Amino acid sequence: MRKICYIVGAGEDCGLDFVPHEEDLVIAADGGYAKLQAVGIHPDLVIGDMDTLSEKMQARYSSLIVKVEEQEHNDQTKAFRWALENIKGISQIYILGATGEREDHTIGNISLLMEYARTYDLDAMCITLEMVSDHSTIFAITDTYEMECGEGRKVSIFSPDNSLRIKSEGLEWPTDGVVFDNWWKATLNKAVDDTVKLEFSHPSMALIILD
């Protein structure tokens, strides 16, 4: 059976009303353990460098802990990579508690979705990856993409590639002439059709935020 993997960070308590099934996997990214504990969800694993989990808690839950001490990646990335490399049969990964509280963490965590999409061929692995908060659904794309988002839904597009051009269909304000040289350039748009198509000029990276 295909399973869902939930990765929970230590940000705002966004989206923590989910009910995991027996076959699903719940991973706390270090300090995300406290967030899960507060809502009565017991994680299957706690992954990270353990810089926010007390020694007492580490001793108490030692059987759940996967300690990754390297500092090149944050705890969200450590949890994501561990799940991909060690868990069979994952069909969906939801990252929760990755936004809010600190703006630098929020921006960094969201931008990492593009890094994951560039590094791993999630389509070939038949895995969908989304970051979910109480306000938005966020995901990355790497080439031409068509999404059934529903008429009237707010759509924002970000890309770090200022050579990328994205032709759009189904948006109130076409993105055909947008130069992605600042974050705001294709934000606060709206779907005027149920389906939105984004045609890339070349394979690259972009972030989609839906309300």
- Please summarize the sheet with the most strands: 10 strands, mixed
* Molecular shape: elongated
Note the total helix count: 4
Radius of gyration equals: 18 Å
The rounded distance between the terminal residues' Cα atoms is: 30 Å
Structural class: alpha/beta
The average pLDDT value, as a whole number, equals 90
Compute the number of strand runs.
Answer: 13
Summarize the helix and strand pattern as letters: EEHEHEHEHEEEEEEEE
Strand order of the largest sheet: 4-3-2-1-5-6-7-13-9-11
**Fraction of residues in helices?**
10-25%
Question: pLDDT below 50 for ≥5 consecutive residues: which ranges?
Answer: none
Q: How much beta, percentage-wise? A: 25-35%
Description:
The structure is a single chain. This protein is of the alpha/beta class and 211 residues long. The chain is 20% helix and 30% strand. It contains four helices and 13 strands. The chain has helices spanning 32-38, 55-60, 75-86, 103-119, and strands at 3-8, 25-29, 45-48, 65-67, 90-96, 128-132, 137-141, 145-148, 154-158, 166-169, 186-190, 195-200, 206-210. The strands form two sheets. It has a ten-stranded mixed sheet, with helices on both faces. A three-stranded antiparallel sheet has the order 8-12-10, with no helix packed on it. The radius of gyration is 18 Å and the shape is elongated.
List keywords for this structure.
211 residues; ten-stranded mixed sheet; three-stranded antiparallel sheet; 13 strands
What is this entry, summarized?
This protein is α/β, with parallel strands linked by helices. It is built from 4 helices and 13 strands.
